[in-house]
Amino acid sequence: MIFRLLVSAALVLLPLAGAAAAETAWYPVPEDSHPHDVAPAPDGTVWYTAQAQGALGRLDPRTGRTEQIPLGEDSAPHGVIVGPDGAPWITDGGRNAILRVDPASRAVQAWPLPDRYGPANLNTAAFDQNGYLWFTGQNGVYGRLDPRSGAVQVFQDPDGPGPYGITATPSGEIYYASLAGSHIARIDLATGRKTRIDPPTPSQGARRVWSDSRGRIWVSEWNAGQVAVYDPADESWRSWRLPGSHPRAYAVYVDDRDVIWLSDFGANAILSFDPVSETFTSFPSDRPNAAVRQLLGRPGEVWGAESGTDRLVVIRTH
């Protein structure tokens, strides 16, 4: 069964560093859905995980219409990305499974984790250069799914609980962040073994990661309220504290211009960071407690899910 809702969007214009203006718009989604992650689709629509309602949502920004596709008993979806096949792929903590939804038929396909690895508290996913989907589980695992054979392989993190954000570099390497472990890691794609990489700030709470076009890994440091970058070429680190008195960096995303985007729970805002001028620009929510937990985009657009207000937000750059 598919539920549909027609809504209207609010729009506001805000300045953006390096550009004349940016257009911010909000799109309501069904009440109490608590959208967690978003994934813009090739056709201009946007997928989102309705975590509190066990569904995958789809927004058409042209009309404001949303629909929600139930994902099955016990579903509590966390992450969603669009795969190389153009379909949404979901990390579902409630079902302890990786899911795929067919964009045309809305059919749901599931690959459960082996019973001995549950509940893994599945978080996020990324595809590598060989077509494998890699995923994280905050209870201390990470793993991969081969969509061709359906084989699921899970690895115990030797450093314990914490695997959270994950990203692929332009060359197809995979890095993830450990929130509880306060480090990032590179995965050997052949063996599955991790190489731990420690940021210079202790106990910083590395939450999410994203690669830029040069393969540098940007990290949102939740506890430290910082954004940091690791350069594998020389194994160097740099970090910048977000503006304000109590920053809490949750999501990080790097757009097609290599501008860095972050969600800041402390400021109730989305921030852009220009790594050339080393300046921040703030895009505050127009409602309190927005709680944007993930950011993703496509050229000219940065999307987030306001889990605290039951809305999706987009910043359109010009």
TrEMBL record:
The keyword Signal applies. It holds the Pfam family Vgb_lyase. Residues 57-78 are annotated as: Disordered. Its cofactor is Mg(2+). Its EC number is 4.2.99.-. Inactivates the type B streptogramin antibiotics by linearizing the lactone ring at the ester linkage, generating a free phenylglycine carboxylate and converting the threonyl moiety into 2-amino-butenoic acid. This is Virginiamycin B lyase. It comes from Benzoatithermus flavus.
